[in-house]
Each structure stands twice: as structure tokens, then as C-alpha cells.
MULE transposase domain-containing protein (Timema tahoe), 86 residues
Amino acid sequence: TFEKTQENIGESYFWAIVDETTDHCGRYFAYDVVGKLNSTDSGRPHLVVSKMFEATNSSTIAIVVVQTFDEEQAVAPTEANAAISC
């Protein structure tokens, strides 16, 4: 959940990865994964946004980045998996 992600990262610096892909059904998806940044390891990754689009471009990716910090848009991995099944 978003609360667990916030608890894990706290006030620390964090890393974020935004990725876009097309699944085998031809649908476009964008994902944002974040984790706690520290000097010993990359931290546990958290999927915070998984969104399906008609097409991907810089505007749709910007939406994903903004939604990364919106608690209402956070998703659980099981929700993301359910959303991408054909």
C-alpha cells in the first residue's frame, strides 16, 4: 500500500523508474517504481503507479510521474496484475 511505501522510504532520498511498454495484446502501459536510496543497496522496489493508455508519449508519461506522488492513485501489485490480464 501507499502507506507502507511511505513508511519504508520515510524522509530518505529515493529513486524512481518510469517505464512504458506494450503488452502482447497491443495495449500501452506505463509504470512507476520507487525505492529508498541508501549507500548499501538499492532498497526494496514499490510499484506505485500502473496505468493503461491508448498511446504513450511525453504527456502520458508525465501523468504517471505526477500520480506517483498522489496517494489516491497508488496501486498494489495484485491490482496491477489484474489490470493487465487480456
Observations:
- Confidence is low (pLDDT under 50) at residues 76-82.
- The helical segments are 2-9, 58-68, 77-84.
